[in-house]
């Protein structure tokens, strides 16, 4: 982090990202509704289309920053609509691979065509270079937050394990509440 960067500036950055996320979700819902799907289904179709390969549900979730439960729900709905299909996963018997059907690829292409028409108004006043810079910055911040989350979780797990071990060795010791 740059020396002297004020916490208020970081707060404003994250608030801006949250607002953008909300605006993108609302715009995605409006865009996809006209095509008979939800933005959540569009995200799953997008993960499979962009990667151009079959993926497991955890891979889809990780790629799109979704929970596994959200992906499970959307996969069931997309299968029912005929947009995706399961493929046997030789590497993991209990985790099928999922791929777009021709109908799913067509639906994703239809939504993306509509989205491309809206892109110019969405990025009005933002140059190609600014879009590229912003993308790099957001990717870097995303990776940093993910690393920090894993480190915090590891520290918390280690701390919890130490507390449990201490309680096991000293069962009569009362925990001090703060």
Question: What this model shows, in words?
Answer:
- The chain is 70% helix and 4% strand.
- The protein is mainly α and 178 residues long.
- It folds into 2 domains: 13-124, Orthogonal Bundle (Arc Repressor Mutant, subunit A), CATH 1.10.10; 126-171.
- Helix 2 (39-51) packs across helix 3 (57-64), helix 2 (39-51) packs across helix 5 (102-122) and helix 3 (57-64) packs across helix 4 (68-81).
Task: Summarize the model shown.
With 178 residues, the protein is mostly helical.
SSE string: HHHHEEHH
Q: How does the major sheet shape up? A: 2 strands, antiparallel
- Strand % is under 5%
Helix content: over 70%
Order of strands across the main sheet: 1-2
Q: What class do helices, strands and sheet pairing give?
A: mainly alpha
CATH class of the largest domain: Mainly Alpha
CATH superfamily of the largest domain, by name, is Winged helix-like DNA-binding domain superfamily/Winged helix DNA-binding domain
Q: Any guess at the CATH architecture of the largest domain?
A: Orthogonal Bundle
Low-confidence regions:
167-178
**How would you describe the shape?**
globular
SS field, number of helical segments: 6
Mean pLDDT: 85
CATH fold label of the largest domain: Arc Repressor Mutant, subunit A
Q: In angstroms, what separates the terminal alpha carbons?
A: 32 Å
Count all strands and give the number.
2
Count of the separate structural domains: 2
Radius of gyration (CA) equals 22 Å
């Amino acid at each position: 982090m740059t020396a002297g960067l004020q916490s208020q500036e970081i707060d404003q950055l994250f608030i801006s990202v949250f607002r953008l996320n909300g605006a993108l979700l609302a715009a995605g819902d409006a865009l996809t509704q006209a095509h008979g799907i939800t933005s959540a289904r569009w995200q799953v179709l997008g993960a499979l289309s962009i990667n151009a390969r079959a993926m497991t549900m955890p891979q889809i979730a990780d790629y799109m920053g979704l929970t596994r439960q959200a992906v499970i729900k959307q996969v069931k709905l997309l299968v029912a609509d005929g947009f995706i299909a399961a493929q046997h996963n030789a590497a993991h018997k209990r985790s099928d691979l999922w791929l777009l059907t021709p109908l799913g690829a067509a639906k994703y292409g239809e939504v993306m065509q509509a989205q491309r028409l809206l892109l110019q108004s969405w990025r009005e006043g933002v140059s190609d270079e600014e879009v590229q810079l912003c993308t790099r910055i957001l990717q870097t911040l995303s990776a940093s937050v993910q690393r920090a989350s894993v480190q915090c979780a590891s520290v918390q797990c280690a701390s919890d394990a130490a507390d449990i071990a201490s309680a096991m060795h000293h069962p009569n010791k009362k925990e001090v509440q703060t």
